[in-house]
Amino acid sequence: MTILAETAQQIEQKLGFPLRVKAICSRGVDQVAVPAGLGDVVRTTDWREVVSHPEVDIVAELVGGTGVARQIVETSIDQGKSVVTANKEMMAAIGSDLWERAIAKSSNLAMEASVAGGIPIHAVLREGISGDRIAALYGILNGTSNYILTEIEKNGSAFADVLADAQKLGYAEADPTADVDGHDARSKLAILSALAFGMKITAADIFTEGIRRISPIDFQYAHRLGHTIRLICAARQTKEGLFLSVRPALIPQSTILANVQGAYNAVWVRGVYGEDTFYYGRGAGPRPTGVAVVSDLMRVAREIVSGSPERVSPFAHERLGEFQPISVMKQKRAYYLRFKVEDRPGIIASLASILAEKNISLDAVLQLPSDTKSDLPFVITVEPSTEGAVQKAVAAMAKLDFMVEPPLALPMETSL
């Protein structure tokens, strides 16, 4: 509301008419400060009063989740109201169904703030480069995870310590599961993949791994290899089909994504004709997200006033096709394998034997100086192999009696 109040004059100049807030709903609505510039605003704790208000044309759903938020959005659409939402979880799960519902009611649905709030990536995929055919999309889409990883990298701090600091600073929630286990980023990738490839993506079908096992030693070895580690959201169109994954990966330090620091987000899109484009900005926070919400309100308001019969789908395609992604087990990559062992003769030979059994070719062995022999870290890199073969090898290696913990396997993304 602050942005609406403080930019009211500029908004009116751009639209040719003002945007007015008619009603707000919140559980603690009495504590909500309404800027003076917005005039008289109805305050309520019942969202139905907002949705049914005769002078409300657009409902902004900023509740989150898929419970009450879904009721708000569906009821709004059924009453012919247009909807602006920042709800990534809901839009990833049922966004295409909501759009079908909106079409039937001649209302609109906008969701720019649902992914990378400070980057207008929806507008880019929906309109800016819609004339291209997308071949691949890589993103850093979770600011909390990126903050944690870059702090581990810079300071050599343990994951648990950096997470605690992130929670104190407000970057991470009290329950950080959605962020550090990749679920938040998975919802965002599902939405962007739908825009990029025109397919209905089920978030649960996306291969997902989090960052809990990444340690300072992994960055030391990654740097030795000329790489760094980021939580990478990847969507690649291949001859076999579309591969989708959210996972920590080694990426070359020379790439632009490697320089995305702290709580920032970035998206790298590769088109068949326009080739590479890159988008960078804050992924979250009240102000960047607020800008995205207000921009959507302006776009939808303009379409309502002009009576435009040709609305642009929020998913960039009028209808999304049914889709099942190719199993990531078939994807071929070079891999980084990090071990912690009780040092003894014959360890490398035992590991090499398992790799050979799975038809995986060893590339290099790296061991930095270490003071401990009971918890000795070292790394093996392997030639491009399928995810399925690497996982089978890692499962066999985890059973060896000299392992202090299961091996960590990270893909090396060399196609960035």
List the helices and strands and how they pair.
Layout: H1 2-6, H2 8-15, E1 23-25, E2 42-44, H3 47-51, E3 58-61, H4 68-78, E4 82-85, H5 88-104, E5 109-110, H6 121-128, E6 134-140, H7 143-155, H8 159-169, H9 177-180, H10 183-197, E7 207-208, H11 216-224, E8 227-237, E9 242-252, E10 264-271, E11 275-282, H12 286-306, E12 332-341, H13 347-357, E13 362-366, E14 376-386, H14 387-397, E15 408-412
Helix pairs in contact: 4-5, 5-10, 7-8, 13-14
Please tag this protein with its features.
15 strands; Rossmann fold; 416 residues; alpha/beta; single chain; Dihydrodipicolinate Reductase, domain 2; Alpha-Beta Plaits
Question: What is this entry, summarized?
Answer:
The chain is an alpha/beta fold and 416 residues long.
What would you note in describing this structure?
The protein is α/β, with parallel strands linked by helices and 416 residues long. It folds into three domains: 140 residues, NAD(P)-binding Rossmann-like Domain (Rossmann fold, 3-Layer(aba) Sandwich), CATH 3.40.50.720; 162 residues, Dihydrodipicolinate Reductase, domain 2 (2-Layer Sandwich), CATH 3.30.360.10; 83 residues, 2-Layer Sandwich (Alpha-Beta Plaits), CATH 3.30.70.260. The protein has 14 helices and 15 strands. Helix 5 packs parallel to helix 10. The protein is elongated. The two termini are 39 Å apart. The relative contact order is 0.12.
| Text of the CATH class of the largest domain | Alpha Beta
Termini gap: 39 Å
Number of strands: 15
Q: What is the third-level CATH name, the topology of the largest domain?
A: Dihydrodipicolinate Reductase, domain 2
Topology as H/E string?
HHEEHEHEHEHEHHHHEHEEEEHEHEEHE
Query: Numbering strands along the chain, what is their spatial order in the largest sheet?
Result: 7-9-8-6-10-11
Question: CATH H level of the largest domain: which superfamily?
Answer: Dihydrodipicolinate Reductase, domain 2
Helix proportion:
25-40%
The low-pLDDT segments are none
User: Could you tell me the strand content as a percent range?
Assistant: 15-25%
Report the principal-axis shape: elongated
Taking the sheet with the most strands, its summary is: 6 strands, mixed
